[in-house]
Specification:
single chain; about 190 residues; alpha/beta; three-stranded parallel beta sheet; about 45% helix; globular
């Protein structure tokens, strides 16, 4: 298990599942295989994480991408989107899938996190899209060169660009997601 679980900055545990060779195989099947492997290795029982975040590709036309929801691995879903049309199209698809699954008692859509790309009228576009899928914009995350600076150093903004205003924004986002997640614990 220690060969696939790596400790990142601040004690965050990370697992990278990877994907198939382009044109061969199914990325959705890769997601399913990753969950099956984590269960087989009893990763959740061994590490006992406080919160688990899955970062999966943003379209659900393939059933494998919806697996975290269907498999009971996700209680709340936050969609990260920019104001780009294809990103909003994918956000709409994800929201529709969550609605369909929600009727069967699966995960709930908690909102959209706007990861800005500096598109004209981006905040308005995403707010309108959120309203259309009956949700809200949870947080606006502005575009910042500090993110690329940190990535170029192989780490996080909090680790490599500590004076960046993004550190506070990411902390606010984490607090908001935890707060919204805690709100649902009594509902179950």
């Amino acid at each position: 298990l220690k060969d696939i679980v790596f400790e990142g900055f601040g004690g965050v545990l990370c697992v990278e599942a990877g994907g198939p060779t382009p044109g061969i195989g199914c990325a959705g099947r890769g997601i399913i295989s990753a969950f099956e492997k984590l269960e087989e290795l009893k990763a959740f029982e061994i590490y006992k994480p406080d919160i688990v975040i899955y970062d999966v590709l943003g379209d659900v036309v393939c059933g494998g991408f919806a697996m975290p929801i269907r498999g009971g691995y996700a209680r709340e879903v936050f969609i990260v989107s920019s104001g780009e049309m294809m990103a909003l199209y994918a956000a709409n698809n994800i929201a529709q899938a969550i609605k369909n699954f929600g009727r069967r008692g699966y995960a709930r859509l908690k909102g959209i996190i706007l990861n800005a790309k500096n598109i004209e009228n981006e905040q308005e576009l995403v707010a309108k899209a959120a309203a259309e899928i009956e949700t809200e914009v949870v947080m606006y995350v502005p575009r910042s060169g500090d993110i690329q600076t940190a990535e170029n150093h192989g780490g996080t903004v909090s680790e490599f660009v500590q004076a960046s205003p993004m550190v506070k924004i990411y902390q606010e986002l984490a607090d908001k997601v935890l707060e919204m997640s805690e709100d649902t614990k009594g509902d179950e």
